[in-house]
Design a protein that fits this description.
With 267 residues, the protein is of the alpha/beta class. It has 2 domains: 154 residues, Rossmann fold; 103 residues, Hypothetical Protein, Haloacid Dehalogenase-like Hydrolase, Chain: A, domain 2 (2-Layer Sandwich), CATH 3.30.1240. Helix content is 36%, strand content 22%. It contains 10 helices and 14 strands. The chain has an 8-stranded mixed β-sheet, with helices on both faces. Helix 1 runs parallel beside helix 10. The longest helix is centred in the C-terminal third of the chain and has 17 residues. The N and C termini lie close together (11 Å). It comes from Priestia endophytica DSM 13796.
Length: 267
């Protein structure tokens, strides 16, 4: 039976207005009542994901910042990883540019070095304020221990930035396009898939006992784990090709799981 649903947030369970639809909220409750556990997996920070958990009215496992942190619903930290001071500084100084916005994410806060006219628009999508740190590079290893560096630019430029970063830092970082126009740069071997395996080991679950749903490239590592993978219809077309199902909502996934489990229990 499927015992765990792993759901992405933005573009999947969470709308651009930071809301969960009533239908998806009921679907999550129905799954929990049927005995299916839930894990939220996102590029967002843990404290932002806690806000979503409040909307969903429950306790959930959390894979935050694309896998930099794994926290159980009992609030036990299973895994955490940040950049080394040297790599954080090198990557940051390479990607920062007047033409782009570069966010540095610690465990609970997003930082930016200087104001940008687009920051107000970006802030609308976040649950907590972006803080200004004029001495960003100098604070690495001192007051800042980043687990993610995000570059925000025009969508057609993001893939070029990703290619350049991987050419220079292929042994030190992994990159994921987490949303159109947003590139997340992570410490090497950090992904939703890597951290999901850590959670599965903790929960003693097999790969075919989970289902995963998401919409973007940073969800692919977790799709590769399970035969029950679901891409959102409004997500990236290339991502949809790599999953076993394409759906319109998390509600659709929940219905699949409940039907699948019902058939298995009859057998």
């Amino acid at each position: 039976m499927i015992k765990l649903l792993v759901s992405d947030l933005d573009g999947t369970l969470l709308s651009a207005e930071k809301k969960v639809t009533p239908a998806d909220l009921k679907a999550i409750k129905d799954l929990k009542e049927s005995g299916v556990d839930i894990c939220l997996a996102s590029g967002r920070m843990d404290n932002e994901m806690a806000k979503v958990a409040l909307m969903l009215q429950g306790d959930f496992h959390q894979i935050s910042q694309n896998g930099a942190y794994v926290i159980t619903r009992e609030r036990e930290t299973l895994y955490e990883k940040v950049f080394s001071e040297e790599i954080a500084r090198s990557v940051y100084n390479t990607v920062k540019s007047p033409e782009t916005i570069t966010l540095v994410c610690s465990n609970h806060t997003n930082f930016v070095e200087q104001d940008h006219e687009a920051l107000a628009e970006i802030q609308k999508y976040l649950f907590f304020p972006i803080e200004k740190e004029p001495n960003m590079s100098g604070e690495f290893g001192q007051s800042l221990f980043p687990s993610k560096i995000s570059v925000i630019s025009f969508p057609d430029e993001i893939f070029a930035i990703e290619k350049a970063i991987l050419e220079q830092f292929s042994n030190e970082v992994d990159c994921y396009v987490s949303a159109p126009g947003c590139l997340d740069i992570m410490p090497k071997n950090i992904s939703k898939g890597h951290s999901l395996r850590i959670l599965l080991s903790h929960l003693n679950l097999k790969e075919d006992e989970i289902a995963c749903v998401g919409d973007s490239f940073n969800d692919i590592p977790m799709f590769n784990i399970t035969p029950h993978s679901f891409a959102m219809k409004g997500g990236e077309p290339e991502v949809q090709k790599l999953t076993t199902h394409v759906v319109s909502s998390v509600k659709d996934v929940a219905e699949y799981i409940l039907d699948y489990n019902a058939k298995i229990s009859v057998k």
